[in-house]
Amino acid sequence: MAVISSASPVSIASLFRPIRKYPTLPDLVITATSTSCLSSLSQPMNDRQQPGSKKRVVVCGGGIIGVCTAYFLAKKGAAVTLVEKSSVACAASGKAGGFLALDWCDGGPVESLARASFNLHRSLSEELNGPDSYGYRPLTTLSITVTESGPSSPSGSKSSGDSMIPSWVDGATRGPRTIGTTQTTAQVHPQLFTRTLLNTAVEKYGVEVVIGKLEQLRVEEGRVGSVVLEGGRVIESDSVVLSLGPWTGKFEMLASMFRVSGLKAHSIVLEPKDPGAITPHALFLSFHPQGGKAMDPEVYPRPTGEVYICGMSAEEEVPDDPEQIVGNPASIAMLKRVGKSVSSHLREGEARVKAEQACFLPCTDDGVPIIGEVPGMKGCYVATGHSCWGILNGPATGAAVAELVLEVRATIVDLSRFSPARFIGRRRVKV
């Protein structure tokens, strides 16, 4: 028997952190009866499942990729246990922008995945009442150049007067361009989307959720047989899906095969006094700060009454515990400067700062997600490396991995181009 171990330390927290009360979107809570607790470490997994009755799949990772995979596996009839070491959607899946685009990945290896996933988002919204449950809505998306005004400049006066620019965007702007329509771009609130999907998977399809740290995979004769958690609990399985995001590199078996680095991205969430004035326009900016280089932040109004602003990214070492991630003060300050330069509605005194945060996006060396069965290890699958497109590509990734694991005909997307086997020869797999 081979035992494959992770070296990163344990972090155990509650399943969900409290969700703020929003004016239009309800709170989402996993019921206690649907959650397995770590107090039962010595108990066997899934007593209700008899061997052979259903394929037993353990999905490791409670971000958007893991939750989508668990959802579609369970919907297709698998007995699914989702293992998350901290709390569901606690990292990038809870702090991302939630922007969706149909055709922005066209011409690259992710084109088919992105298109399939954009359409799946629409279908899921119809199925799960997305507009009310997690803020799904189509958007008009604009590219705009914004110049930071000096302290003596009056706030609230456009420099271009272009009718294409929404009325609430009243800073020094020019060169607006429509780069997405309500047919090709949309948004979700990523944390609410992830949790809505998991709630449905638990309540409708019987997914178990376990908060615990993945310690080992046990492998016999080249096939994965069980998952071992920190503390000793063993979860027997027929297949395992590793959706560890930027923490992929903390798991030795995967790190020995390919590199997944973490791109630290910062964001703030503002709550303007007059949210009704903010129209559903996503803004991709060329921002020119005083005394600094141009940068490319993004601004996403949400139907919750919030405005999300992100940018200021840099590659950094990923901490072991997602709870340890904090934003760089200078980056947060710059995003506030972006907000007040874009709109008088977003300046200090007119908008309350609800969150100052950072998260890590999982990036691969070739810029392509890694999705597929681990070479030389039957029943072990990986799904990671989606970079800034994780929320967009989560549904199609999860649905396609479910088909792969359950060995049914692929109908979502051909995953061969995403296979981890493409790294064979570059690094040696340690088993």
UniProtKB/TrEMBL annotation:
Q: Which GO terms describe its molecular function?
A: oxidoreductase activity
Compositionally biased region (Low complexity):
149-167
Can you tell which superkingdom this protein's organism belongs to? Answer: Eukaryota
Sorted alphabetically, the Gene Ontology cellular component annotations on this record are: cytoplasm
| Pfam assignment, any one | DAO
What InterPro entries would the database entry show?
FAD-dep_OxRdtase, FAD/NAD-bd_sf
Q: Where is the FAD dependent oxidoreductase domain?
A: 56-404
- What UniProt keywords apply to this chain's record, in alphabetical order? Oxidoreductase
Q: Which SUPFAM superfamilies match?
A: FAD/NAD(P)-binding domain
Chain spans, region Disordered = 145-174
- PANTHER family to which the protein is assigned, alphabetical: OXIDOREDUCTASE TDA3-RELATED (PTHR13847:SF150), SARCOSINE DEHYDROGENASE-RELATED (PTHR13847)
Instruction: State what protein this is by name.
Output: FAD dependent oxidoreductase domain-containing protein
